[in-house]
C-alpha cells in the first residue's frame, strides 16, 4: 500500500508539472511579435538596470514589470546590458579609473554602459543570461516587448576585436586605434573610454550583424535602440534590419532625427529638437511661436509614416543636463502631458514614475526612489488614454494634428488630435504668467484629468494660471 501511495504521489507531481509546463507553453504561444499596430498606442519605458533597484539586477527589475502595465507601458528599452571594459574606464569627467590611487575608491566606479567589451554577453553585475531570459519572458507574458540598447558606433578597449580585427577600427597616422572623432571639427568627442569602429570595412558589417542576430534568435528580443545611429552609415542599417526581420518582426529606435534612417531601416527616432524647444519654453527663452514653426518643419521634412519619441527626460538629459525640475521647473507636468498628446510615442525614464529629482550618477552605483508620489497617478491616466483612445495614435498611421487658433497664440498652445470619430484637445498656458484668452473652437468636452465638463466657443474667455493645462476628450 505504501509503494502504491508513493507511486500515486509521483504521478500527481509529474501531472502537475506537465500541466504547469503546458500552461507556460500556451502563454508563450499567445505572444505575438511586435507589429505596426502596436506603435500607435504604445508607451516606451527606458530601464536603467544598474540604478533601478538597490540590487541593480535583472531579477529585481523583472519583479516590477507587471506594475509597468499600470502605466500603459508596451515597450521596455533596456540600457546596455553588456560587460563594460576595464581598460580606459572612466570615473568622472576626464578622470580615468587607472589614475585613482586608492583601491577602494577605484572600485566604486563601474564605467559607462556604452563601453561594451562583448556584444554577446551580459554584465555579471546584472545577473545571468537565464535571468535576462526570465525578464524577456515576463515582459512577453505581460503583453510587452523588449528592445536592447545597441552601441554600434564604438566598443570598449577590452573588446577582442581590438586584438583580432584591428582593421574594424579607425586609426591615426601612427596606425593606432582612436576614440570617436567629431567629423565636423576633426576633434575627439572626449569619449576616451571607447574605440571608434570603421564601417568602411564590410567585414565589420558581417560581424555586427552576427552579434545582433544572436539576441533575436537566441533570446527572443523584439528590437533595438541604436546609440548615435546617425553617426553610422545608413546603408549598414538598411543591410542589417531586413536580416533581423527575417527572424521575426523587430522594432528599431534610432537615437537620431536623420530622416534617411527611416526610409528602410528605423521605425522611430528621437524628438531631440522638439525636446530642446520644450526646455527653452519652460525657461522663458522661446515661445509657442517657435514650437509652431517646428511642427510645420517636421510635417514638411518627414514622411507621413515617420514618427518620433517624445520625452521630458532620459538617461542623457537626467545625468548630464539636469532633472526635469532643473530644466523645466513648474512647466514639467504640462510638458509631460504634451509628450503624451503629440504625434509619436511618449517615453518614461527609470525613476520618473517615482518623482526622481536628482541626477543619477553615470559611472557609479546610484538608486532611483521607489515611492509612488505625485507623478505615478498622472502617468497612469495618461498611459490609459494613450493605450485606449485612437485620437492619440502616434505611429505610422497617426491621428491628425491640427493647431487651434487662440487670441494669445504666443503663450497658449492648443491643438486637436482626431481619428475614427474620436477627438482629443490639448490646451496649455506655456508661460510663467496668468493668461486670459479665447479659443476658436466649438464643443462640449470632458476634462480628462479632473472629469469636469468644459465648453469651448469663440466668445467665452478662459483664464489659465502659469503652466496650467487641460486634456479634453470628446
Whole-Å distance between the termini? 71 Å
* Helix and strand composition category: alpha/beta
CATH-level-2 architecture: Alpha-Beta Barrel
CATH homologous superfamily label: Glycosidases
Major sheet size, sense and barrel closure? 8 strands, parallel, barrel
| SS elements, strand count | 20
Proportion of residues in extended strands: 15-25%
* Strand order in space, largest sheet: 1-2-5-8-9-10-11-12
Rg over CA atoms, rounded to whole Å, is: 24 Å
Molecular structure report:
The chain has one domain: Alpha-Beta Barrel (TIM Barrel). The protein is built from 17 helices and 20 strands. Strands 1-2-5-8-9-10-11-12 form an 8-stranded parallel beta barrel. The chain has a 6-stranded antiparallel sheet with strand order 13-14-15-20-17-18, with helices on one face. The protein has a two-stranded antiparallel sheet with strand order 3-4. The protein has helices at 2-30, 36-40, 49-52, 58-63, 65-69, 103-107, 129-141, 161-164, 202-219, 234-247, 261-264, 272-282, 288-301, 315-321, 324-328, 332-341, 375-388; strands spanning 43-47, 73-78, 90-92, 95-96, 145-150, 154-156, 194-196, 223-226, 251-254, 268-270, 307-310, 345-349, 400-403, 412-419, 422-429, 435-437, 443-447, 453-456, 462-464, 469-473. The protein is of the alpha/beta class. It is 35% helix and 19% strand. Residues 1-17 and 20-29 have low confidence and may be disordered.
Amino acid at each position: 500500500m505504501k509503494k502504491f501511495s508513493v507511486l500515486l504521489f509521483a504521478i500527481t507531481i509529474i501531472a502537475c508539472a506537465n500541466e504547469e509546463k503546458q500552461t507556460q507553453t500556451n502563454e508563450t504561444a499567445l505572444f505575438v511579435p511586435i507589429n505596426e499596430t502596436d506603435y500607435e498606442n504604445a508607451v516606451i519605458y527606458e530601464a536603467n538596470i544598474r540604478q533601478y533597484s538597490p540590487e541593480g539586477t535583472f531579477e529585481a527589475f523583472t519583479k516590477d514589470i507587471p506594475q509597468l502595465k499600470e502605466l500603459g507601458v508596451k515597450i521596455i528599452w533596456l540600457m546596455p546590458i553588456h560587460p563594460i571594459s576595464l581598460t580606459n574606464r572612466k570615473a568622472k569627467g576626464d578622470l580615468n579609473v587607472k589614475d585613482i590611487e586608492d583601491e577602494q575608491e577605484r572600485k566604486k566606479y563601474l564605467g559607462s554602459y556604452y563601453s561594451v567589451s562583448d556584444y554577446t554577453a551580459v554584465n555579471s553585475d546584472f545577473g545571468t543570461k537565464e535571468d535576462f531570459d526570465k525578464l524577456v519572458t515576463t515582459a512577453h507574458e505581460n503583453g510587452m516587448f523588449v528592445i536592447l540598447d545597441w552601441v554600434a558606433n564604438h566598443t570598449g578597449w577590452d573588446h577582442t576585436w581590438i586584438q583580432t580585427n584591428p582593421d574594424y577600427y579607425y586609426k591615426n597616422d601612427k596606425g593606432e586605434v582612436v576614440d570617436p572623432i567629431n567629423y565636423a571639427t576633426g576633434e575627439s568627442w572626449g569619449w576616451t573610454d571607447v574605440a571608434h569602429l570603421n564601417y568602411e570595412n564590410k567585414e565589420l558589417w558581417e560581424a555586427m550583424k552576427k552579434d545582433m542576430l544572436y539576441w533575436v534568435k537566441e533570446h527572443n528580443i523584439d528590437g533595438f535602440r541604436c546609440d548615435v545611429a546617425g553617426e553610422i552609415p545608413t546603408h549598414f542599417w538598411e543591410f542589417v534590419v531586413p536580416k533581423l526581420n527575417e527572424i521575426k518582426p523587430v522594432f528599431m529606435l534610432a537615437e537620431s532625427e536623420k530622416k534617411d534612417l527611416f526610409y528602410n531601416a528605423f521605425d522611430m527616432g528621437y524628438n531631440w529638437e522638439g525636446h530642446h524647444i520644450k526646455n527653452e519654453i519652460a525657461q522663458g527663452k522661446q515661445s509657442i511661436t517657435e514650437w509652431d514653426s517646428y511642427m510645420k518643419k517636421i510635417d514638411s521634412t518627414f514622411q507621413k509614416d515617420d514618427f518620433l519619441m517624445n520625452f521630458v527626460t532620459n538617461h542623457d538629459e537626467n545625468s548630464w543636463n539636469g532633472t526635469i525640475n532643473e530644466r523645466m521647473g513648474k512647466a514639467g507636468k504640462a510638458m509631460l502631458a504634451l509628450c503624451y498628446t503629440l504625434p509619436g510615442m511618449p517615453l518614461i525614464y527609470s525613476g520618473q514614475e517615482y518623482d526622481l529629482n536628482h541626477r543619477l550618477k553615470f559611472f557609479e552605483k546610484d538608486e532611483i526612489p521607489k515611492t509612488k508620489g505625485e507623478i505615478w497617478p498622472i502617468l497612469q491616466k495618461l498611459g490609459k488614454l494613450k493605450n485606449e483612445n485612437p485620437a492619440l495614435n502616434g505611429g505610422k498611421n497617426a491621428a491628425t494634428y491640427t493647431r487651434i487658433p487662440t487670441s494669445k497664440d504666443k503663450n497658449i498652445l492648443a491643438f486637436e488630435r482626431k481619428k475614427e470619430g474620436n477627438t482629443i484637445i490639448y490646451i496649455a498656458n506655456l508661460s510663467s504668467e496668468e493668461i486670459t484668452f479665447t479659443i476658436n473652437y466649438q464643443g462640449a468636452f470632458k476634462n480628462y484629468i479632473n472629469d469636469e465638463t468644459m465648453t469651448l466657443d469663440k466668445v467665452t474667455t478662459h483664464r489659465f494660471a502659469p503652466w496650467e493645462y487641460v486634456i479634453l476628450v470628446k
